[in-house]
Amino acid sequence: MPSERPAVVEIEATRFNMELPSLFWPRTFDDRLLGSLERIGQLVPVLATLEGDTPCLLAGQRRVRALAQLGRPVQTLMLDSVSPLQRGLVYLESNSSEVLDDGAMIRALRYFATCTKDLTSLAVPLGVSSHSRQWSLLGDWLKLPESWDHLLVKGHVPLALAKVLTRFTPDDLRTLQAYFQDMSWSKNNAVHFVTWIWEASRMKGCSVPALIKKLGLDTILSLELSPRDAMTRLLSAARAGRYPRLCQQEREFRKRSQDVVAGSQWRIEQPDNFETRVVALSTRVASPRDLDQRVEELARIAKDKVWADLDPAGGRS
Q1: Looking at residues 10-33, what average pLDDT do you find?
Q2: Counted domains in the chain
């Protein structure tokens, strides 16, 4: 940075180059800023540097755009000899009051990765500990194709998915991307969905595209389902691909248990993923009369011969 004090000059708003990669967070002004500039004027100069005769904005996108709409010149603090790394740091520090989500951090880190190999020094300016799990996941995400970034920014994919996604090939990732394009997955469901696909493909010794076709995930995606229904069916199909025996046991148990409690207000479940022979029965009562009726139903259920076939014991596969 220059040792002499930078000068503040007036520049027409339309002269600025605001398409620089160092402005990695797109900014638009709101009515509040517009009204403030109109009533009081510009209190803080924007930051810029010259490239030839063109002023290149380093920080202050909102103010420049708002002043352009008002037709007013922009008070600008001019900086000399600013490297690409310094440009990014100036912009980052100028936005230090911003609360950053994972998508915003990735946008910043994508830029800085083009300027330096050591990104660790950026953890503190981004508000993250370099020893945290979040920082580790951000590093994993940077290994993914940039085409995944917009899914993180839009909230369709959680950062927690980064680690497992790094296991997939570029072709696998292109195939998987379609399953997040129009759906916003929760953290747990996204991790389960992708992990089950990865593990099932290894188990069955087939490629991810082949597994997806075999499980019918592509067919589910092609149906005109609501995002919630589509995610539910996709998750169920992926789980069945990863745990075929367990899912078969669940289907058989569900059918048999329905026979056991048929005609009653009792429900029966296997709470331990078939790792034990325990079952759980539950019901609801609203009065002493209901309770008497449930006791009678339970006595009948206990004598039902179907219990002989209701064996929840088993193991996963």
Answers
A1: 93
A2: 4
